[in-house]
Amino acid sequence: MDNSLYVGLSKQIVLQRQMDIIANNIANADTTGFKVEALAVREDPQAPAFTLGGPKPVKFVAPNGVIRNFGQGALHRTDSPFDVAIDGQGFFQVRTAQGMRYTRDGRFRMDDTGRLVSQGGDPVLDDGGGEISLSPEKGQVTVSPDGTISQGTTRIGKLGVVSFQTLSTLEKVGDNLLQNTSNQPATPAADARVRQGMLESSNVNPILEITRMIEVSRAYEQMAKMMDSEGDLSTQAIQQLGKAA
């Protein structure tokens, strides 16, 4: 196979991966706290298939991880006492069976034992790393901007909202959760404010993502046409050499 076809194939693989990420962004446009993603790419120098008159090495293109935009999504009101949103940088802490996880999804609820839990049933943690227990007999739940949870005149605890110096260490693990893939410690998010009765929308711009999808689709088609043309030229060259022989 000609070097240019290998290069074109590597580009198509990257474009297909870009299309998958864009489609996932669009699918999560209405997911609470979802952060838009994009594919990072890099040059991948490799030995050429044919060395006659060609560059050494051939520069292919390859995926280089996923970039996540942690910008603030719009806040919208729900008036549910267990819905909370973070205004500013930071993450809620959730303890799962797989370990500590972090999320911007504040759709919380009270389980049968009175614990404050996520939509997946995992306990939401306070600023000390402990579970938050509520009681219907103590009255309505209120959450102050600093995260303090009260029922009537009784202080129950304080939501743990943490931040990281380097957000690239956070990796998506499903169910709208992130895990810390480094030894970087989580620190209290001092500037974040908690808004009760509100949720954070995703920061996906559907119009922008659809535009990107069209651009990637066209680039894929152009690459396919280029590869077809290169293939036709190779076939013609072989036929001409055969006749000369």
Question: How would you sum up this structure, described in words?
Answer:
The protein is α+β, with helices and mostly antiparallel strands. The chain folds into 2 domains: 3-71 and 204-244; 75-200, no CATH class. It is built from 2 helices and 17 strands. The strands form 7 sheets. It has a 4-stranded antiparallel sheet, with no helix packed on it. Helix 1 (3-27) packs antiparallel against helix 2. The two termini are 22 Å apart. The model has no long low-confidence stretch (mean pLDDT 88).
Helix and strand run: HEEEEEEEEEEEEEEEEEH
Helix percentage: 25-40%
How many extended strands? Answer: 17
Widest β-sheet, arrangement of strands: 6-5-12-15
- Domains (count): 2
Low-confidence stretches: none
Rg for CA atoms: 26 Å
Secondary-structure-derived class: alpha+beta
Biggest β-sheet strands, sense, barrel: 4 strands, antiparallel
- β-strand amount: 25-35%
Q: With helices defined by DSSP (H or I, 4 residues minimum), what is the helix count?
A: 2
pLDDT averaged over residues: 88
What is the straight-line distance between the termini?
22 Å
Keyphrases for this structure?
4-stranded antiparallel sheet; 245 residues; 2 helices; elongated; single chain; 17 strands; 3-stranded antiparallel sheet
Secondary structure: elements and pairs:
Layout: H1 3-27, E1 37-46, E2 58-68, E3 75-77, E4 84-87, E5 91-96, E6 99-103, E7 109-110, E8 116-117, E9 141-143, E10 148-151, E11 154-158, E12 161-163, E13 170-174, E14 177-180, E15 187-188, E16 193-196, E17 198-200, H2 206-244
Antiparallel strand pairs: 1-2, 3-17, 4-16, 5-6, 5-12, 7-8, 9-10, 10-11, 12-15, 13-14
Helix pairs in contact: 1-2
